[in-house]
Amino acid sequence: MKPDNLKYFSIAILIALAGLEQSCESDARTSTRIPPVIKKGKEQWQKDALLSLTELINRGIDSDVNYFKRARIYFEREQYAEALDDINESIYEQDNVSEYFLLRGKINRELGNIDNALEDAQRAEALQQSSPELYVLLADILQAKNRFGEAAGYLNQALRMAPYDGSAYYVKGMLQAKQGDSLASLSSLNYAMNVNPRLLRAYEQGTIINLKLKNTAEALAINEKALNRFPERASLFYGRGEILNALAQPDTALIFYQKALAIQPDYDEALNALATVAMQQRAYPAAIPALKKLLRKKPQSKELNNMLGYAYEKSGELDLAKTYYTTSLTIAPGDQDARYGMYRIRKIESEGLYPSYYPEENTRDGYKLLDTSRVKINIIQPRGTTNIRVDSSRKAKIE
């Protein structure tokens, strides 16, 4: 190659390399200096927020506010015990913030602590809280305490401020149900479920009301929808068992009662239902554990003692059966069920002590044969004849 051509060729290569270097720098800037935005899901955001809030709390920075924020996240995640611990810390440090008492009232309502929830809600109201959220909470608590007039007053205030709030329609549906208007109640509860799909109590009450109205198909549909959203809720498995029991499928109902108890072992309604249906189906081994748990809570119940005695009797464990029947008779000496149970056991235990009058070999085709060596047989004599004379006074012959 000539020197001039070589010179031009080298210049062209340098220009190309400079362009490539500039392109690489541009790509480097876009990939490192401006990273792509990664959107976080709600669950991941909550996890990151909990970690950050925990770090701030450990460092003692704005403890009451950060406890409150963490409690609110726990509440949304339905971790009510953790939420209650955190909001108690917030109130311990600042006991004059209405939002803290409002949140604790909501947590106590979910935990079933109705009196504590009412006290917190009233404290929030006294601290100048006037949100529809508070009024819905007060209305919900008061309807649960059967104070319908006060509940309706707060509900009306909430609906004026937030006319499409799902929780408000849940309370409205509950008030309508307790006033006997089941159809209007179902309409309100269905609206509440559609607006707020996370409102568990709306599903539960909708299932209960439909069952009372014998609308088993609607009850089953609501329960199915609820289980898809809340797969770890014991009350929903119990509700499915009730529906199946109403549909005359007790064997399948037993399975769902057991699922409810696997999640919540001390669930009284599920324990009662399991024991009752198992006894009806003669599945005594399945009934015994549930009855024993119930008896630990009510040791003076003669009914539970009798049911356990009967279950053990039918399972062939007569000594245990006698123990429970005896306890029942101690509680109520005249109880007929326990007395009959003891009579049946004594009868079973006495079998075999005395030989049968008729030995087994003296039977044929299920009929007992007569032992002529033990029985005296008198031969029947033929009947005699009597001649009746003619009645001479009446001149008549009597035959």
From TrEMBL:
Keywords: TPR repeat
SMART domains listed in its UniProt record: TPR
Domain of life: Bacteria
SUPFAM superfamilies: TPR-like
A Pfam family assignment: TPR_16
InterPro entries tied to this protein: TPR-like_helical_dom_sf (IPR011990), TPR_rpt (IPR019734)
Ranges: TPR repeats: 132-165, 234-267, 302-335
PANTHER family assigned: CELL DIVISION CYCLE 16,23,27 (PTHR12558), CELL DIVISION CYCLE PROTEIN 27 HOMOLOG (PTHR12558:SF13)
Protein name according to UniProt: Tetratricopeptide TPR_2 repeat protein
Organism for this UniProt entry: Dyadobacter fermentans (strain ATCC 700827 / DSM 18053 / CIP 107007 / KCTC 52180 / NS114)
